[in-house]
Amino acid sequence: MWISLENKQAVVFRLPQSVDNKTTAMLKRVQKCAFPIKYRPLLVSGSLKITV
User: Fold this and answer.
1) Contact 12, 49 (CB under 8 A)
2) Hey, CA dihedral for 44, 18, 51, 5, is it positive or negative?
3) 17 and 3 in contact (C-beta within 8 Å)?
4) DSSP strands (E only) in the chain
């Protein structure tokens, strides 16, 4: 799992095809610890796109 920035406007989490509770917990930790994110998860072609 890795994180990439697209045009500094969106954070994209590359996820395995199945999103499990562990991944969800990780996303919550990232949201709390890394930087404030107001996100709307969009599952598109195996990527969870999080708009900032």
Assistant:
1) yes
2) negative
3) no
4) 2-6, 10-14, 42-44, 47-51
Burial class (CB within 10 angstroms; exposed 0-12, middle 13-18, buried 19+) of 39:
middle
SS3 state at 16:
coil
In Å, how far are 7, 10 from 39, measured between CA atoms?
Answer: 16, 9
pLDDT string in tens for the chain (52-residue length): 445 555 444 555 555 555 566 666 766 666 554 444 444 454 444 455 555 4
